């Protein structure tokens, strides 16, 4: 967690540009940063991650005010903005870096993330099994500066 007044969450839901825009639009989110997590290389570059050899996912690290937005609400947005049944892709973006994942910072986040995934799977809304991985958060490596707020800088709201 960031401190007693803020929370941290980390999500991978495909291309991090669009994911960042979605979380930035949620009231109570105070900051976002795009980057890489879940892999075997320290300080990976975009080119390394895109090679599919590092094991990293493109992720968004979210800082939020839990008095305004709950972790459960963040999870609800996460499930809504991507197809959690796809493996190593989202829409036209294909590669291991696009796998669906939730990196949890503590046991409570893990409990909520697993319960949320299980509820979605049991809802009957999906035609295929949920492929989202839920794992303890490891290091977050910020992406290169040109990736930060990429779509916002260009006046866009989505990738496709």
Poorly predicted ranges (pLDDT <50, ≥5 residues)? none
CATH class: Alpha Beta
Q: Main β-sheet: number of strands, strand sense, barrel status?
A: 6 strands, mixed
Number of structurally distinct domains:
1
Structural class: alpha+beta
Topology-level CATH name = Peptide Methionine Sulfoxide Reductase, Chain A
Order of the strands making up the biggest sheet: 7-6-1-3-2-8
Count of strand segments: 8
CATH architecture: 2-Layer Sandwich
Question: Can you describe this structure?
Answer:
The protein has 160 residues and is α+β, with helices and mostly antiparallel strands. The chain has a single domain, classed as 2-Layer Sandwich (Peptide Methionine Sulfoxide Reductase, Chain A), CATH 3.30.1060.10. It contains five helices and eight strands, in the order E-H-E-H-E-H-E-E-E-H-E-E-H. It has helices at residues 16-24, 46-50, 71-80, 107-122, 150-153; strands spanning 7-12, 29-37, 57-64, 89-90, 93-94, 101-104, 133-136, 141-142. Strand 4 (89-90) and strand 5 form a beta hairpin. Helix 3 (71-80) crosses helix 4 (107-122). The longest helix has 16 residues, at 107-122. The mean pLDDT is 94.
Summarize the structure.
The chain is of the alpha+beta class and about 160 residues long.
């Amino acid at each position: 967690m960031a401190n007693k007044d803020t929370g941290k969450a980390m999500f991978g839901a495909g291309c991090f540009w669009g994911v960042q825009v979605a979380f930035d639009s949620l009231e109570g989110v105070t900051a976002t940063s795009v980057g890489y997590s879940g892999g075997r290389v320290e300080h990976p570059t975009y080119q390394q991650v895109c090679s599919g050899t590092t094991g990293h996912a493109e992720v968004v690290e979210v800082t939020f005010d839990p008095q305004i937005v709950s972790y459960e609400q963040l999870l609800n947005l996460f499930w809504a903005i991507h197809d959690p049944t796809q493996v190593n892709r989202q829409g036209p973006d294909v590669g291991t870096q696009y796998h669906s994942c939730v990196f949890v910072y503590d046991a409570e986040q893990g409990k909520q993330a697993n319960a949320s995934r299980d509820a979605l799977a049991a809802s009957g809304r999906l035609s295929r099994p949920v492929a989202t991985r839920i794992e303890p958060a490891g290091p977050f490596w910020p992406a290169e500066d040109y990736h930060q707020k990429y779509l916002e800088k260009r006046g866009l709201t989505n990738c496709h």
